[in-house]
Amino acid sequence: MSEKPERSVHAEEPGIGRWNADGDSAGLMRPANGDLLDLFLDSADLAAFLARVSELAARALSAPGAEGTVHCSVTVGRENRRDTVGSSDEAAAAMDERQYASGQGPCSEAVSTQRAVYVPDLRTDRRYPRYTAALADSDLRSVFAAPIPLPASSKADAALNCYSSAVDGFPPELQGRVAELAGLVSKTIHLAVKFASEADRSSDLAAALESRTAINLAVGVIMAQSGYSQAQAIEVLKAASNHRNIKLRDVAAAVLARFDEEGPTTSFS
User: Fold this and answer.
1) Degrees to nearest 5, angle at CA 142 with 137 and 143
2) Domains of the chain
3) For an engineered disulfide with 48, which of 18, 34, 43, 179 has Cβ 3.0 to 4.6 Å away?
4) What is d(CA 72, CA 57) in angstroms, rounded to the nearest whole number?
5) At 147, phi and psi to the nearest 5?
6) In whole numbers, what is the pLDDT of the chain averaged over residues?
7) Considering the entire predicted model, what is its pTM?
8) How far apart are CA 107 and CA 102, in angstroms?
């Protein structure tokens, strides 16, 4: 038996690899083994990776034979906040932003419940009145949101959001493909979220250490100039912070700026 042909999607970009045509009637595609990891490794950060995933999903789901033009995005929730981290285009991002602003919608529900949500026609659906009212001027008519399964240890949740210009643009076969793709990207998104979380923690630690460096140096300056003890010098900084209603680190930076306009630096070995 001959092997099924492969079609290249956006193959001119490194790291995306090829998506294999599976020969079904819709002409849709699924990522070949290792392509998603290559895509992640070739992306600058989580946002870039998810933007490219969204672009590939939109191209695959808008293949010849599919209903309407599809736009995709990925919603990721971390630390009680949900954002569209990546989208195939401005249309998908705008649809998501209106949903967040309304406080309701299929994508938010898919993330919260970890169940797929389908809206065949945004103009007749009654489940999300504030969201559908905000979309009165939109040309997009149907939405399918599939949760992206992430382990509890990731402390994150996510969903693949798909919008179609066609009414009932996601028949069961296409819904299955979206859910399949959401499952396929799960492990790679988990890895990407983990790296992003570690980067955030490193950034927070660096900021905390830099703040502590500035405060300690400012305390030393006050001690040298006034003859105060360390405890007294700290109280001077705190009093200035409360009186001016600014952060303690900013008061310390102002003290140090009299001697070094560039401010303190912290070395990490």
Assistant:
1) 110
2) 48-199 (3.30.450.40), 205-257 (1.10.10.10)
3) 43
4) 7
5) -65, 145
6) 77
7) 0.63
8) 12
